[in-house]
Design a protein that fits this description.
Elements lengths: L37 E2 L2 E2 H5 L1 E4 H6 L20 H18 L4 E5 H4 L6 H22 L2 E6 L18 H21 L3 E4 L5 E2 L7 H21 L5 E4 L9 E2 L4 H10 L6 E6 H6 L4 H10 L3 E5 L18 H13 L8 E3 L12 H26 L1 H9 L6 H7 L5 H11 L9 H13 L4
Helix pairs in contact: 3-5, 5-6, 6-7, 10-11, 11-12
The structure holds D-xylulose and cobalt (II) ion.
Cobalt (II) ion binds next to loops.
Length: 446
C-alpha cells in the first residue's frame, strides 16, 4: 500500500507526493527532495528522518490572540476519544502521503485529558494502542513524544520548577505516562521543552532552587525511563522565552552547562529549534554548532521566524542559506543519530485549503534537500574548510603548538610577542566566502 487511510480519507485530493524535479509545475510534488537519492552514501530520507508535528498539523486551528481559528478540521468526532482516533487517522494518512517516516506528539495532542490522573493515563493508554496499530500498518515511526506541561492553568507557575511541590508531582504523572507510551510505541527519543520552566519576576522566584528541582525531576524521569526499557535519547529543547519571560533552557550553551553540572549529559542531548535559536539572537547554525562541538546534537525542530517579528512564528523553512549552513554542521556531525528533522511549523492562518498542509511540508523538505545538496558540494570542494584550517595554522607548529600543548607560560607568551614585534593584519575574508557560497549555489543560473 502506498499510503494509509482510516475509515475516511481526509485528503482525497492528494495522492502520494513524489519527486518530479525542479521543472515540474505540480505544487504537490517534490522539486529537490528525492527520498531514494543517495548523497554521501546515505539515502536522502535517512539524512533527514522527516517528521510531522501532531500539534501544529492536526490540533491547531489557526487562532491567534486577536481572532478565532480559521481552519476547520474534518477529523472532529462526536466525543473526545472518537476525535482522537480520527486525528490519528489524519496524521498517518498525511505522513504516508507526504512520504514522511516519522511523527511527534505531546500527550494531550493525541489523547484527551481526563477528569483525574487515572482517567488521563487510561486515555493515553487507549490512544497509544491506536497509534501502535497505525504505526504497524503504515511503517511510520515515532521520532519523539513529550508531555505538555505548559498549557493547563495548573502549570501557570511552572511544572518541574513550580514553587508548589504538588504541581511538580502532577507533572511527573504526565511524564511517567508519556514515557510508558513512548516505550510501547518504540519511540527513538523523548523531549522536554519547558515553556514555563522559568520565571516572570525575580521578586517572587528562587532561581537556584527551581533549577535544582528541574535537575532532580529530569533525573527521576531518566531513571524511570531506563527502568521500563526506554533506550532512546532524552532531549532538552532550548528556548529563551515565550511563554515565560525568561526560560531556564535559554539556548544550547546554557543547557549544556546545566546538563554537565548535574551529570545528565550521558543520557540527554539537545533538540534545536531554528526559531527558538533566532529568538535567543543566534543563527540556527550557531546552536547546531555549539551542540555538535560538544557531541550533544540530538535532533532538530525545523522552522523559521519572521525577520521583522521578534516572536516564535513557527513558519515553514524556506531560506536555503539557513539550511545550507545547518546541513554543513549536520553532515560534519555524521548525521543526527536517533534524531531527525521535525517540522515544528504551522500554516499561516489564511492558508486554509486542505492541500496547503502538504504544500508547506513539501517546501520545507525541498529547502532542506537543497541545503543538503549544496552543503555536500561545499564540503566536497573543501574550500571553506581549507580556509578555516589555514586561518588557525599558526597554532599547528612552533610556539603556537607549544601553547596548545600547555608548554608555555604567560611570561613565555610575552617574550614571544616581544621577539616577533607587531602582528601583521590578516584578513578574515568574510565577503569572499559569502560570494563563494553564492557562486556554488547559483553557478547554473544563466
Ligand atoms: C514550543 C515548541 C514545542 C516543543 C515541544 O515553542 O517548540 O512545540 O517542540 O513541546
Ligand atoms: Co519545538
Amino acid at each position: 500500500m502506498s499510503y494509509y487511510t482510516g475509515e475516511k480519507e481526509f485528503f482525497p485530493n492528494v495522492k502520494k507526493v513524489t519527486f518530479e524535479g525542479p521543472g515540474s509545475d505540480n505544487p504537490l510534488s517534490f522539486k529537490f527532495y528525492d527520498p531514494e537519492r543517495v548523497v554521501r552514501g546515505k539515502k536522502m530520507r535517512d539524512h533527514f528522518r522527516f517528521s510531522v508535528a501532531y500539534w501544529h498539523s492536526f490540533c491547531a486551528t489557526g487562532g491567534d490572540p486577536f481572532g478565532n481559528g480559521t481552519l476547520v478540521h474534518p477529523w472532529i468526532g462526536t466525543n473526545p476519544m472518537e476525535t482522537a482516533r480520527m486525528k490519528a487517522d489524519a496524521c498517518f494518512e498525511f505522513a504516508t502521503k507526504a512520504d514522511m517516516d516519522f511523527y511527534c506528539f505531546h500527550d494531550i495532542d493525541a489523547a484527551p485529558e481526563g477528569g483525574s490522573i487515572e482517567e488521563t493515563e487510561e486515555n493515553l493508554r487507549l490512544v497509544t494502542k491506536m497509534l501502535k496499530e497505525r504505526q504497524e500498518v503504515s511503517g511510520v515511526k515515532l521520532l519523539w513524544n513529550t508531555a505538555n506541561m505548559f498549557s493547563h492553568p495548573r502549570y501557570m507557575n511552572g511544572a518541574a520548577t513550580n514553587p508548589d511541590f504538588h504541581v511538580l508531582a502532577y507533572a511527573a504523572s504526565q511524564v511517567k505516562a508519556a514515557l510508558e507510551s513512548n516505550v510501547e510505541l518504540g519511540g527513538q527519543n523523548y523531549v522536554f521543552w519547558g515553556g514555563r520552566e522559568g520565571y516572570s519576576s525575580l521578586l517572587n522566584t528562587n532561581m537556584k532552587r527551581e533549577q535544582e528541582h528541574l535537575a532532580k525531576f529530569l533525573m527521576a524521569a531518566r531513571d524511570y525511563g531506563r527502568s521500563i526499557g526506554f533506550n532512546g535519547t532524552f532531549m532538552i529543547e532550548p528556548k529563551p522565552m515565550e511563554p515565560s519571560k525568561h526560560q531556564y533552557d535559554y539556548d544550547a550553551a546554557t543547557v549544556i552547562g546545566f546538563l554537565r553540572k548535574w551529570g545528565l549529559d550521558k543520557d540527554f542531548k539537545l533538540n534545536i529549534e531554528a526559531n527558538h535559536v533566532t529568538l535567543a539572537n543566534h543563527s540556527f547554525a550557531h546552536d547546531l554548532r555549539v551542540c555538535a562541538d560538544e557531541g550533544l546534537l540530538g535532533s532538530v525542530d525545523a522552522n523559521r521566524g519572521d525577520p521583522q517579528n521578534g516572536w516564535d512564528t513557527d513558519q515553514f523553512p524556506t531560506d536555503v542559506y539557513d539550511t545550507v549552513e545547518a546541513m554543513m554542521v549536520i553532515l560534519k556531525n555524521g548525521g543526527l543519530g536517533t534524531g531527525g528533522l521535525n517540522f515544528d511549523a504551522k500554516l499561516r492562518r489564511n492558508s486554509t485549503d486542505a492541500e496547503d498542509l502538504f504544500i508547506a511540508h513539501i517546501g520545507g523538505m525541498d529547502t532542506f534537500a537543497l541545503g543538503l545538496l549544496i552543503a555536500d558540494r561545499l564540503l566536497e570542494e573543501g574550500k571553506v574548510d581549507q580556509f578555516v584550517s589555514n586561518r588557525y595554522s599558526s597554532f599547528d607548529s612552533g610556539a603556537g603548538k607549544d601553547f596548545v600543548d600547555g608548554k608555555l607560560t604567560l611570561a613565555d607568551l610575552r617574550d614571544y610577542a616581544v621577539k616577533q614585534g607587531a602582528p601583521k593584519q590578516i584578513s578574515g575574508k568574510q565577503e569572499m566566502l559569502e560570494n563563494y557560497i553564492n557562486q556554488v549555489m547559483f553557478s547554473t543560473v544563466k
